[in-house]
Amino acid sequence: xxxxxxxxxxxxAVLVPMQFLLEPNKRLYFGYILSALILATWVYHRHIWRSRxxxxxxxxLAGLLRFIFPKAIWLNRSSAIDFGLLCLNAxxxxxxxxxxxxxxxxxxxxxxxxxxxxxxxxxxxxxxxxTVSQSFLILSYSLSLTLVLDASRYLxxxxxxxxxxxxxxxxxxxxxRTMTPLTLYRIHPVESALQYTRDVLVTGVVTxxxxxxxxxxxxxxxxxxxxxxxFAFNLFGANLRHSHIWLSFGPLERIFxxxxxxxxxxxxxxxxxxxxxxxxxxxxxxxxxxxxxTDQYERLNFGLKRP
Length: 307
What we know:
Blueprint: H1 7-14, H2 16-20, H3 30-47, H4 60-68, H5 71-74, H6 77-100, H7 104-119, H8 131-162, H9 164-174, H10 189-214, E1 222-223, E2 226-227, H11 228-235, H12 259-266, H13 283-288
Antiparallel strand pairs: 1-2
Helix pairs in contact: 1-6, 6-10, 7-10, 8-9, 8-10
């Protein structure tokens, strides 16, 4: 047998969809789903319900449910594929990616060794730091890791669109003709491995650099054990990015990527191709000339080409 079978890992992978609902570090965490439902309700009330003021208020809930959960979007072949790929990639991650790909800890360790070899050990005044300097170190590390991780996501995402052989893997994600929060996990296993490796390398290198400069272990600024920036991103509409619900951030789209901007990225219209590659921040798209702001609602079709 080439690799030992980890029965516990298989068991966990099978239960992944349910586990995600209880893990704050996953976008499908029930708290993020709830916040997305609240935002979707606001969108419905502001842009749809107000135009139907002649209808009885008792019909509000029925209309809201049809708006958020239309059968044509949630109960179709595309959504079933999303769920299947979620389970497949979770299994591969448990059985192959985690055991075979170097960990962020190892990358950080070798980063420190390399920096020490090249520049020598830093002469630190002491290992004790004040509360202020420790707080500044934690904040600096959290901000730096957030920025570098987000920039790396933008870069890899753009490469997967512009390099033909990488596009052959990424187009699995763009083949979705309807989108739900599960579409996030509609990715080819090769892309899943690339994204996992990117995350490990960036986290390890940034952590190693901060450890080398400070000479001490560093903690992230977290909420419920999750990077505070990632927590805020997930809380404010991340689950609407892959959906039919149009939520624009207005002027803030010059800094942050809105759900509507990501839907533009998935649009099958030629004028929307190769735009809005960003994950959390739109500043990379601004610098790269790929930013598209959603000043007004646009009716979109999704998929690799128009129906």
